[in-house]
Queue: 2 jobs
Job 1
Amino acid sequence: MSNDIKIKKGLDIKLKGEAEKTIEKAVLSNFYTLRPEDFHGVIPRLIYKEGAKVKAGEPIFHDKSNEAVKFVSPVSGEIIEIARGEKRRIVGIKIQADKEQIFQDYGKMDVNAVDADTIKAHLLASGCWTFIKQRPYDIIAKTDQSPKAIFISGYDSAPLAADLDYVLQGKEAELQAAITAVGKLTDGKVHVSVGAKSNSPLAGLSGITLHKVSGPHPCGNVGTQINKIDPVNKGETVWTIHAQDLVIIGELLLTGKFNAERIVALVGSSVKKPRYFVTKIASEVATMIYDNGVDQNGNDRIISGNVLSGKQIGPDGYLGYYNNILTIIPEGDDYELFGWNKPIFDKISTSRALTFSWLTPNKVYDLDTNMNGEHRNFVLTGNYEEVFPLDIYPLQILKSCMYQDLDEMEALGMYEVAPEDFALTEFICVSKQPHQKIIREGLDLMIEEIG
Amino acid sequence: MGLKQNLHNLKEKYKGTKIAPAFNALHTFLYTPNDTARGGTHIKAADDLKRTMNTVIMALIPCLIFGMFNAGYQHYLAVGEIQAVTNGFFSSEFWNLQNFVLGFWKILPLLIISYGVGLGIEFLFAVIKGHEVEEGYLVTGMLVPLIVPIDIPWWMLIVAVAFGVVIGKEVFGGTGMNILNPALTIRAFLFFAYPTWMSGDKVWVQGAVERTKEIANGSTADAISGETILGSLAQSHPVDYSVMDMFFGFIPGSVGETSTLLILLGGLFLIFTKVGSWRIMLSATLGALVMGYIFNVVVDAGWITETSKFYGLMSTEFWHHLIIGGMAFGIVYMATDPVTGSQTNKGKWIYGFLIGFISIMIRVFNPAYPEGVMLAILLMNVFAPTIDHYVVQGNVKKRLKRGKLKTA
C-alpha cells in the first residue's frame, strides 16, 4: 500500500505577507511569560514564588493533577510577576532574563542505549513532555498511557505557515535523537508526513514511517493525517508532536540542555518585510514586531499562531508555547456599505454567490478580521464537506457537541478530532458559528464526563 | 461618513435594549457590521446568510417578472382580447405593457402582504425573544406570492402567512430550526383551510371567479375558464397547449410556477453559485421521471384503460410532468431548502428522489386536487431527519467496526 496521502477536499487560503526565506536573530527580549492557558486543561501548581531565581530549563510549575508533568523556564532569570485572573487563576508567569544565560544540566543521554522508562522520566523531568500531545482530547499526553502510534507532520499547509523544510534544515541529528527516543515510547509506528515535493530533513531519518502528503489545506494538519493513516478508535491514544519541538527534545537528549530557541516566521500583510527570526518560546513579541516594520499606531491584530487557529495577543503579548509563527493582519472593525449583496472580488469564498474568488485561485489576498456577517443558526448544508477531508460528518458532530449528547459525540468521532480540524469549516461558515470553540467545549465535556 | 457614524452611534445607544434586534436588522441591511472575529479563526470567508438568501431571491426574480406578464396574458387571453402566442418565447402577444401592468398591480399587493406580515412577525419575535432578525424570511416572503393563485383574497394570505411564520417557524426557534418549509406550510394552510380558492378551474386566471359570480347574478358575459393543464388531464379533458407553451410558461397556474424555462435557468444559477443543492435537484428530477415512466408503462401494458379516472394523468408522457404544474418550481426552490431538507450528501440523493417520485404519485392519484409536489416535499421534510439518521449511522457503524477489528 502506498504511504502517500492525497486529499481533494480542502481549501488553500493564500494570504499576503508570506515569510521570505532569510533567518535573522531577533533582538533577545528581556521578558518572557509562560501562560498556563497554552496548556489546555492544566491547572498550574507553582514550584517557585515571585522573586525566585531560576535557570533555563528549570521547572517552575507542574500540573496539579499530575506532579510528574513539569513546565520549565525558557530562560534563566528572575520570576518577577505571577499574574492572576479571576478566582486567582494564574494567567501568566513573567520572567526577567539574565544577561548571562545559565542552563539546568540534565545530562547527555545515549538514546540507543536506554529503555523507555528512562526516556520517559527524562522527558518529564526536563519539561520536554509538554511537547507531546495526545488524541483524544488534544491535550498534553497522559503519562500512564502508551500510544498506539505517534504522528508528526513535517508539512504545514495553513495560511502563511512557516516552511518546515526550511526551519528544520541542518537539525538532522536532533531530529533523529528525538525520533529514536519517542519511538521507544510506543509499540506502534512513528508516522512522519512531509510535503510531496519537499526535501525535508525528516525524510531521511530512520525509525519512521514516511508519508508524502499533497492537496489543499488541511493536508498538513496532523489530524487529517491521523484520519487517513490510522484513525483513533475508542480506547486508543495517539500522540502528536510538532516537528520543530522535536529539535528541542533532540537537543536536550544530545546536550542535556533545554534550549527554548525556536525559529519563528513573522508574517501577515501588516508586516513590511516578513521573514524568519530566531527567538525563544514565550518571548515578548513587541520588540521583534515593532523593530521590523509593523506600524506602532496601526490598527492591527497580532496573532500568535496562524490566522485560523492562533491566539490573539496584544502588542504586549508573548509568543505561545506551541507556536512557530506570528501573524499580523489588519483589524476589520469597520462597516461596509451593502457588503452583503455587492459583488466581492477581494475576499475569499467557496461559493460563487457574487463572490469571485473562484476566478482567481492563485490570487494572494489581504484579508482583515471582519466577520463579514453576523452569527446565525446553522442553515446551509453540504458546504463544510467540501473543505473537510476527514471521514466524519462535520455538521452533525458540531450539533452533537452543541446539544451535549455524549453517546452521539463518541459515535460520530470525537476521539479523533482537535479544534484545529474544524478551522476551515469555521472559516467558510455562512452562519459564522464558532466551530473550534464548539469542538473544544465538546472535548472538555468528554474529559469531564468520560475521562 | 456621516450616515455610517450616525448609525454606529445609534447602534451603541440601543445596545442591550429591546429595540436593538429591530434596529440591527435595518442597520445590517445597509452596512455589514463592524464585528471582528474573536476566539476562533481570525479571518472569515466573504459569504454570510444575507448573501446566500439574496442569491436565491435573485434566482426568483425572473419567475416573478414572468408571473406578472403571465397574469395579464392569461386574463386577456381568457376574455378573448388577445390571441395566443405564436412566435416562441419572445412573442409580442405576451411581452407587452398591458399584460405587465395588470399583473404588476395584482401581484405587488401579494408581495407586500407576504413581506409585510411575515417580516412584521419576524421583527416582533426578534424583539420579544431578543435574538437577531434572521434572513430566512427574505426567501420565504418571495416564494409565497409565487405559489398562490393570482386572485387569492388578501385576508386569506394574511392569515396564512401569520400561521406559517408562527407555527411553521418561530415556535421551533426561527430560521435553521424549523422542520417544515415555511413557504409550503403557508401554502398547505391555504390549501386545507380554503380549498375552493386553491384548486378547481376558476382560480388560476385573474377575473375568473369574479366573472362566475357575475354570471350567477344574471350577467350574460362568457365564463372564463382557468383550468390548469393538470386539471384538464385529471378530468381527461383535452389539453390545448403545446409542449413549448408549457416549457416557456404561457399556461395558467400559480403566479410564478409556470415558466419551466426560467425555473431551469434559476436552478442552474443556484447550482453554479453553490447555494442550491444539485444533488437534490437532479435526484428529484430523476424520481419524477421514474414514477412518470412507471405510469406510462402501466398504461401501455393495458392495465389502465380510458375509462379509468386516472387515465388522463397516467398516460401523460412521463417527461411532460416536469413542465406542467408546480413540479419544476418545487424541485428547484422548495426541495432544496437546506434547513428542512436532508443535510447529508448521500441523504440528499434519497430525499430528492423520493420527492420526485412521490410528487408524481400524489399528482396522479389525488382525487381532489391534481398536484402533489407540495405534499410530497412536506412529507419528505418530515422524513429528512430519518434519512440523515440512517446515512450517519453508516459512518458510525464503520467507525465501530474499525475499532473492533483493531482490538480483535
Job 2
Amino acid sequence: MYHLAVGKFGHLFVIIAFVSALVATFGYVKSGLSASPEEGRGYWKKTARTFFFIHAGAVLGVVFCLYWIILNHYFEYNYAWSNSSRSMPIGYVISSFWQNQEGSFLLWIFWNMLLGLILIVTTRSWEGPVMAVFAMVQAFLMSMILGVIIPGIDLKIGSTPFLLLREAMPHLAVWKMQPDFIPADGNGLNPLLQNYWMVIHPPTLFLGFSATLIPFSFAIAGLWLKRTSDWVRPALPWTLFAALVLGLGILMGGYWAYETLNFGGYWNWDPVENTSFVPWVILIAAIHTMIISSKNATALKASYILSIAAFLLILYSTFMTRSGILGDASVHSFTDLGLSGQLLIYMFTFIIVAIGLLVYRWKSLPSDEEEVSTYSREFWLFIGATVLCLSSFQILATTSIPVYNKIGEVFGMAWNLALPTDQIAHYNKFQLWFYVVVALLTGVGQYFWWKRVGKGKFEALYLPLVVTFVISSAWIYFGQLKELSYILLLTAAIFAVITNGSILVGIVRGNYRLSGGAITHIGAALMLIGILFSSGYSKVISLNNSGLMISRSESFTANDNKENRENVMLWFNKPERMGNYQLTWKDIRIEARGIRDYIPVSWVEMIEKDFRAVALRDITIDEKTYYSKGDTLKIYPDNFYYEIEYRDPAGKLFTLFPRIQVNPSMGGANGVVFSPGIRREPDRDMYTYIQMSMDPTAEPQWSATELHTVAMRDTFFLNDYVAVLDNVVRTDDVDGVPLKEGDAAVKAIIRIMDRGQEYVMNPAFIIRDNTIGRKAETNKALGLRIQFNEIDPKTGLFTFGVNATQRDYIVMKAIEKPLINVLWIGTFVLMIGFVVSAVRRYRDFLKRRDRDEREETRVKVGKRSPVSEPLG
Amino acid sequence: MKKIHILGLVVIAIAVGIIISTAGDASTYVTFGEAETMAAKGNNSSIHVVGRLTKNGEGEITNMIYRPEVDPNHFEFSLVDNAGAEKKVVYPAPKPQDFDKSEQVVVIGKMEDGYFFAEKILLKCPSKYENDKLEIKEYSSKPAA
C-alpha cells in the first residue's frame, strides 16, 4: 500500500518552510532598515520572528516526515529506497538521512534553524540584520529541496526528498505492468559509510558550515548598522565555535578515511576535502585579525574580508561538490541533480550582496593614523593571518582547476587542464613551508602578545631557542633525519611547543581562562609533528624478498623496480615472511550482530541477498554459546575480515583483520572496498590492507574430475602434490552425526605433502539405508576436493575423484606509520584550546552586552517614560 | 612607503609565484598521439589520457594481463583513446578491483617506448546513481502484495 500522505505533508512543510523563510527575510530586512521603533522596527521584528518560528516548526516537520518514511521502510519513496534497507541497524538508518544531497541540505537547514533560534534569544540589538541574513540563507537552502516545477516555462526548482520511486525512475518497465509496485527492500546505505564515524562526521561538518554563517552575518550587520567595530565582540566566540566544529568535522572525516579507505592516510588533498579545509583556515585567520581589530583598523578591515570570505568559500565548496563540476577530479563528489544553476544563483547573490555592501561602506571604515610597529603584537598576529591566507590561496588555486576549464568552455576555449598528477606532492611542496612559518609565528606571536618580548628586548626568546635546538638536534641525530625540509618543520614545531608551553605555564598560574591560545597552538604544533612523521616517515614493511616476483617485463624492472615490490602474496594457511614478521592467513571471518568477535565464515551458510545466515555448527566463543546449529543469525553480509596472524621476532603472536567489503548490488566504483587492519602501538601504527583477493562470495571453480585408483600405502600425485593413502578406517560418525543402526561408514586417511607442510584429508564413504553416500572433503589451502568414489573388495583398490581449483590467495600491503598518535593527541589539544577560547570570548560578550543594556535602560528611564513598547 | 604596502607587495609576489608554479604542475588531458609527440620532444611531465577498454563481443575485456602468482605488481591492458588510437598500458601495482566493471578509464603517467606507463588509474564505473541503468530484475524479484 502506498503511504502518500506522509510525503504530501513533507512536501507541504517544505513549501511552508520556504515561504516563511522568505517572509522572515523580508520582515528582518524591514526591521533592519527602520531606524527607530517609531518607524515600526518593533513591529517588523516581531512579525519576522513569528515567521522564523513558523519556519523552524516547518523544518522540524520536514525532518520528521523524512525520518518517518525512512524508519518505516516506505520503499515506495525514492529516498528510502536509495539510501536505506531493512537490514540496517538503527544507527545507520539515522545516518542514511543525509546520504543524498537533499538530506544533507536538510541537515544544513536544520542546524541553521537551530543556530538562528539561539541567536534570536542571545543577540538582542543585532537580531534584525543578523537574522535577515540567516533567513535569506534558509530561503535559498529550502529552494534546493523545493521540488516545484513552474508550469508554462517548465522550470524545476530544487529536488525534493519526497519523490516517489515511480516519479524518480519513470522509465522502468515495471510501472506499466504494476503501477503500485513497491520494492520489498531498499538499496541500502553505501556499506562504505556504514561506520560510526559516518554517523557523526556529516552532522558535525554541517554544523560547522552553519556556524560559519554567524561571523558572516555579524560582519554584514556591522556594515549595515554602521556599527563598524562593535560586531566583532559578539561574532568572535561564534567564530571560535565555528572553527572548533568545522575542524572537528574535517578531522573526523580524516579519521574515517584512515580507518576505512585504503589510500593509507587520513588526508588525500582531494578537492572535496580541500574545499572544506580552506574555509577553516580562513576562519582561523579571521579569529586572529578579530582579536586585534579593536587596536588596529587594518585588522578590522581584514576581519570583515575574512569573515565574509569564510562563508563565501563554504558556498563555493558547496557548489564544487554538488554541481558535478569536479566530475573526473574527485571520487566522492555528488552527481549533478540539475541544481547547478540554482547553486550558482545562491553563490553569486551572496557574493554580490556581501562584497557590494563592503565596497559601499569601505570609506566609512576607520583607518590607522599611525603605522603599526614591527615590535607590536598586532603586527605579528597580522603576519600570521596573512600566511594562513596565502596557504589557503595556494590550495584554492589548484583545487579550482576544473572550474577554470568550465570557465574556458563558456568562452569557447578547450583548456584541457587536469589536476597535478601527484596532488599530494604538489600541495605538500607548498604547504610544508607555509606551516614552518606558521609554527614559528605561533611562538613569536605569543611572546609578543604576552609582552615577553618587545623592541630591543628579545632575551626571553633565547632560552626557548636553545632548548628547541637541543631537542631538535638530538631528534635529528638519533632519528637519522636527512630531509632538510622535514628537519625545518620539526624544529619549527618543537619551537612552537616549547614557547607556547612556556606561555601556558605562565598563564595557568594567573588566569587559566586566558590559556586558549597557547593550548590551541600546542595542539597545532603536535599535529604538525604527527603529520610529519606518520606521512613523511611512513615505511612500507611488506617488501617482498622472496625472489619469486621478478617481473617479466624488462621495462619496469629498470627504475621503479624497488618501489614496485611493495606487496606480499599470501597463500591460504601458508606462513610467509614479511620483514621481521611471519604472516599466516588463517581464515576469513564475518561479523555477526551481537557477537563481539568475528566468526569464521565456514561456521555459517549465508543466505543470498539477505542479512541473515544459518549456523552450520554451534557458535561458541569463550565458552558462551550464542547460537546452536541450524539457528538463523543476523550478520553484516558485506564485510569479510581476513584473519592474518603475525608472529613478531620475539615470537609474540597477534592477529589483524583487514577487511574486504563486497556489495554486488551496488556495482560502481564502490562495489568492493578494502579497509585496513591496524595494529596500534603507542609510538606507531602498523597499517595493513589487502590489495587483491579472490572474491570471498564466489564459489570455487573446480577443474574436471580426475580419477585415481590406488591401493593402500600407495603414493600418487594430486595436482602437483605428493599424496599417500595411509589407511582406510571405520568411522562411527560423519560430520558429527552419529550413524544409525545398520549404517556403515569408512573414511580414507590421505596425507598430502606441500612444501614444508603436511595436510591430512578424510573423504568418507557411507552406506546408509542401503544407499551409498559420498562425503567429499575440501582443503582450501591446497585448492583440492577429494571424493571417496569406490571400494573394490576383490582387488583391494580404492578410487577417489579429485578436483582442483585455484588456491586462495591475497595480495597485501603493510605500512608503518610512526607517531601517528601525536597527531590524534594534537587534534584533541587543539579542540580543547578552541573550547577554552570560545568560552572566554563568549563570557566577554555577555558581560559587555548586559552592561550596555543596563546603561541603555538607565538612559531610557532617565529621558523617557518608563513604559516603552516591548522590543521583544 | 608604509610597511603595509611592503607586506602587500610581498603577498602579491608570493601569490603570483603560486599561480605560476601551479600552472607548471597542472597536467593536461591528451591523446596517445600527443603523448608520444611530447615524449619524443623529451617532455617528461605526467599527463592524463582518457580512453575506453578493449572489449570483445561478450563485453569481456581483452588484452588484459594480470598474474598475481608471477608478479602481483604488474598489470597490463589496452586502452583506446578518444582519437581511436590503441596502446598498451602498464600499471606497476595490483589490478584495481573494479577494473572489470569499468568502461571509461583515465590513466595518468607518461609514454614510454611503445607503451604507456601509468602511475595512477581512475575508473569510471556505471554508478549506482545513474538510475536509468538499473536492471529491474534485481528489484522486482519479490513483487509487493
